[in-house]
Amino acid sequence: MINHELTEELAVLLDLERQEAASLFNGFCGAMVAELLSFRKLSIKGLGSFYVVHVPATKKSTGLATIFAPPVNKLRFESTLSNGDETHALGVSRLSMSQGEAARFARTLATLFSAALQQEKAIHLHGLGRFAPEDGAYSFFPDRTLEELLNREYQDLKEVILPQHKEEKRLPGYILPLSVVIIVGVLFAVVYGWYSMRTSTAEPSRRVATVVDHRTAPVVLPHKVPKAYPIKSATGVADSVVLVTGDYTIVLSTFETEKRAYQQLAPLRSSGIKAFVWPTSMDGTKYFRVMTGRFTNYSAAAMQLKAMPLKMVDGAYIQQVKKTVVLHGKKGL
Q1: pTM of this prediction exceeds 0.70
Q2: CA 38 to CA 75: how far, in whole Å?
Q3: Which spans in the chain are helix H?
Q4: Domain residues for 283?
């Protein structure tokens, strides 16, 4: 959950409703994540600097095994600014604010962040990470989903462990000839005993029939994967929505895979929220947003978001449409 006290203070200082302030803060968190994925560094006044560090593949020997670890990208944080404050630029480029609105927003947010860090308050930056006291120290903890996105090119690489074989002890030279003598003696005793029994007692041989089971082993069929069915309107035709450039819509959540995004539609629609999957991409990487509603201006979207159940829209934000797109309720249309 986002820090409620910080959101309430933001609403008071910017003269906004609490729900609208929460949506604005969530939108800014999403803008920070997008900026980090694009440029791998970000400076925010009041917080500090975030940057991505590449750790190359490593090889380590423990004496019992050799461990090969794949390369990894890690998110780091420093309390000082490596560049100028980028809050204003994010407000204009990613939140569609005017220059004046962005300047006021940047000043207000810097004041709130600085005070929260000085008092070591818990702050959750949705999708980016959290600041919190843990084990006696106040630290920044990156979001697991963001680290997965930063390492998407290494997702199929796993740690490899190769056991080290110990040198075999060589046997003394006399062991092999002695073993041959013992084996020959045992074979001679067995053959002699068998020959003696055969000459003393003649026993008719018995023919043993070999039974071959021609029955084939049971075939184990894989578990059936349940099929996903589209949500249809009352007329039986798959519903759709057209997002036109310049419109606004409410983004409820964002996923890395299309399957996970479509899994969210049924529970949302059963709760009365008509949602769609909105595919998008950034730097060649695809993302899948779950959105609802089409609005001609930001205020209309904010009013709708305020009226929606809080538990269903926690973490939602308002996004302006940059390119006209047609979304369908049925996957694959």
Answers
A1: no
A2: 13
A3: 4-14, 18-39, 87-93, 99-118, 144-150, 175-200, 258-263, 265-270, 298-307
A4: 240-328
